[in-house]
Amino acid sequence: MYKAKVIIKRKKSILDPQGKAAEHGAVLLGFKNIADVRIDKQVEFLVNVNDEETAKKEVSEFCSKLLSNPTMEDFEINLEEIDEV
Amino acid sequence: MYKAKVIIKRKKSILDPQGKAAEHGAVLLGFKNIADVRIDKQVEFLVNVNDEETAKKEVSEFCSKLLSNPTMEDFEINLEEIDEV
User: Fold this and answer.
1) CB pair distance less than 8 Å for A23 and B46
2) Residue B20 distance to chain A (closest CA, Å)
């Protein structure tokens, strides 16, 4: 069994309005040293297969078909083998 | 200057409806091995101070005052020293 941790990020060239809002909020609250805020998604899940190749394939398909928007976002996959839970 | 990477997670005991929706979507798309999906936030930003203690204090205040909801969420902070950009 594997534990997958996927980070889904907007491409660098695409504006991140949620990050901009947090940045602006920081200024309003008096945080003067905070800049360049980007807010992305981290998705964690279990993959119930025993072979790494199959797990990678399934996770990458799941990311591109459902979790991310390939036009605007990139994803990074981390897989870690774990014991059955 | 520091680069901060903060993961904001709902507490384990709190339902994650977005994760549940992705899990259900996975079943509908025929992914049979994916379970326990949780979707969290990853926030990245620059902290323009030169001393680690001050950076930590400012980031942790920013997280608890603006980025997270302390009733429902926990956060994890990672700081990495970087050269000026």
Assistant:
1) no
2) 11
- By C-alpha distance, the chain B residue nearest A60 is B31
- So what's the ipTM on this one? 0.90
> What is the CATH architecture of B2-81?
2-Layer Sandwich (3.30)
The tens digit of pLDDT for each residue in A23-68 reads 999 999 999 999 999 999 999 999 999 999 999 999 999 999 999 9
| Domain definitions of chain B by residue range | 2-81
Question: Do B49 and A13 touch, CB atoms closer than 8 A?
Answer: no
Q: How many CB atoms lie within 10 A of CB A54?
A: 13
Nearest to A42 by CA among A12, A78, A6, A9: A6
Query: Is the domain A2-14+40-81 a CATH 3.40.50.300 member?
Result: no
CA A43 to CA B65: how far, in whole Å?
Answer: 24
Distance CA B8, CA B42 (A): 6
Q: Which candidate from A7, A26, A66 shows the least CB-CB separation from B66? A: A26
